[in-house]
């Protein structure tokens, strides 16, 4: 190969590399940005070295101390910019034989509050941490699902669908009981939110489970759930990093959340089939997501990089790289390490 041919080949290779390598602003240098600074810049749509990123899975440990240690170890191992604290503690069941006869509690998750305190102290200001709160509908569904007629059936998609259908029948036949249960769950959640703020959490990821037609129509959502969900986000309005997590999402429901006080919107591109660019047309706040959470453990580092790069191109600068939900709990350390390595973070 002569010199001219070599230079021409080298130039072509450089051009190809430039197309595949994500381009970010040069104002904020990687070496100078802390986890918190990177998140702050993304929330405000400012130039930065790379998108902040977070991901997570369930630990399901029996004590607050073990839960907290797993979260801290995960953050330190994979250098996440946000510590999203899972809540795998159960909401207290009714003390009567009726699942819906609930009372407002000072906090339904005292162990979770202890977990958050330990994580706060362990982080020592290194990164923002947020709690996880299930929306009132999802909490009610889990309580309903634990009733003997369903609990004995085990766990499967068919059983879950039967629970959802039966719960919808209950809503229509017993509206007063339904709203009484949702009111108690909501007030308990509001009390819990006050505690997490006092601990120092920067908000909470609130999982809205029923923005899909299998749970009922849009009109059903407005009648049975929306007001309670909105109260949760109103209570989080003064937080920096609360996330509207749309666990399920279909297009007819998209506009239901436009007046929710959520700095960040997260949903699954994989399960919804809705592009980040489409959500951007409806929401101006920061968008989190774009990475396939369902088959995460099968993705290569390059595939993960491609997914979040395309998502950021569609979302713009107000973007947090994340999966649509938790990644498989059985993901190996090598599989988990692919996400940070997609940003050239040394693991």
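Q: What amino acid sequence fits the structure above?
A:
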């Amino acid at each position: 190969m002569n010199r001219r041919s070599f230079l021409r080949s080298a130039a072509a290779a450089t051009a190809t590399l430039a197309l595949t390598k994500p381009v970010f602003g040069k104002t904020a240098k990687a070496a100078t940005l802390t986890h918190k600074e990177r998140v702050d810049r993304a929330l405000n749509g400012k130039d930065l070295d790379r998108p902040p990123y977070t991901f997570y899975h369930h630990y399901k440990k029996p004590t607050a101390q073990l839960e907290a240690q797993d979260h801290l170890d995960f953050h330190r191992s994979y250098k996440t910019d946000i510590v999203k604290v899972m809540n795998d503690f159960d909401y207290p069941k009714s003390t009567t034989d009726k699942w819906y006869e609930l009372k407002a509690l000072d906090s339904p998750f005292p162990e979770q509050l202890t977990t958050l305190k330990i994580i706060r102290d362990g982080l020592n200001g290194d990164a923002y941490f947020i709690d996880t709160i299930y929306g009132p509908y999802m909490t009610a569904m889990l309580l309903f699902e634990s009733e003997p007629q369903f609990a004995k059936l085990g766990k499967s998609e068919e059983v879950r669908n039967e629970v959802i259908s039966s719960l919808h029948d209950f809503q229509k036949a017993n509206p007063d009981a339904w709203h009484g249960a949702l009111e108690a769950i909501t007030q308990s959640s509001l009390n819990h939110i006050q505690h997490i703020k006092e601990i120092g959490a920067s908000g909470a990821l609130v999982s809205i489970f029923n923005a899909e037609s299998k749970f009922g129509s849009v009109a059903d959502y407005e009648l049975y759930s929306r007001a309670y969900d909105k109260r949760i986000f109103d209570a989080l309005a003064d937080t920096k990093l609360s996330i509207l997590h749309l666990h399920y999402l279909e297009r007819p429901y998209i506009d239901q959340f436009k007046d929710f006080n959520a700095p960040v919107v997260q949903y699954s591109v994989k399960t919804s089939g809705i592009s980040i660019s489409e959500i951007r047309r409806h929401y101006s706040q920061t968008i989190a997501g774009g990475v396939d959470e369902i088959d995460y453990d099968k993705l290569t580092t390059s595939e993960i990089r491609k997914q979040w790069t395309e998502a950021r191109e569609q979302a713009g600068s107000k973007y947090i790289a994340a999966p649509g939900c938790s990644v498989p709990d059985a993901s190996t350390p090598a599989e988990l390490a692919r996400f940070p390595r997609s940003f050239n973070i040394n693991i």
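Q: And what stands out in the fold?
A: The first strand starts at residue 82 and ends at 84.
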